[in-house]
């Protein structure tokens, strides 16, 4: 599975692409950060992010998209920018027919480090180890995107396959015809 993962942010948007399957070593394809100047108006910044993200989608042709779930924060403008970037990425994925999964920071930390309360240094160290990197990915937004991708490969992909298997195993439901008459 090839996952494009995004740590959304209006100033710095971390992006990572990882390929792999649960239980096997993962492969880093690319990691980076899309930045926008704080001095620019929000619509211009969102357009820059959209254009940058479209390049990532086109280069890597992911099978799934993982995004960090927006959480409440005292800083409303930060939450708004994060939510707006999330929407841009969701639209890009939807236009390409790709499934999108939102993962909470706690879920990502637990998947990567085994501890949902791990700090950034612990998560970055595990990302470096799991992807067999020579140096930790920088900045932190890039490392966070890779942690999301790892989490999705290990958890999201498995959860999706389990849900599909459950749906396929269920016997079809027969609903009575609205007129009350039996169907032929």
Residue stretches low in confidence (pLDDT < 50, at least 5 long) are none
CATH superfamily: Ribonuclease H-like superfamily/Ribonuclease H
Structural class: alpha/beta
Tell me, what's the shape?
globular
- The counted number of beta strands is 5
Calculate Rg over CA atoms. Answer: 19 Å
Count of discrete structural domains? 1
What's the SSE pattern? EEEHEHEHHH
Count of separate DSSP helical elements: 5
CATH architecture: 2-Layer Sandwich
End-to-end Cα distance: 43 Å
Average pLDDT rating: 88
**CATH fold label:** Nucleotidyltransferase, domain 5
Instruction: Tell me the major beta sheet.
Output: 5 strands, mixed
State the share of residues found in helices, binned by percent: 40-55%
Q: What would you note in describing this structure?
A:
With 184 residues, the chain is an alpha/beta fold. It has a single domain, classed as Nucleotidyltransferase, domain 5, CATH 3.30.420. 48% of the residues lie in helices and 17% in strands. It contains 5 helices and 5 strands. Strands 3-2-1-4-5 form a 5-stranded mixed β-sheet, sandwiched between helices. A hairpin with a 4-residue loop joins strand 1 and strand 2. It is globular, with a radius of gyration of 19 Å. The termini are far apart. The mean pLDDT is 88.
List strands and helices in order, with pairings.
Blueprint: E1 2-7, E2 12-19, E3 27-35, H1 42-60, E4 64-68, H2 76-95, E5 100-103, H3 105-113, H4 120-130, H5 140-169
Parallel strand pairs: 1-4, 4-5
Antiparallel strand pairs: 1-2, 2-3
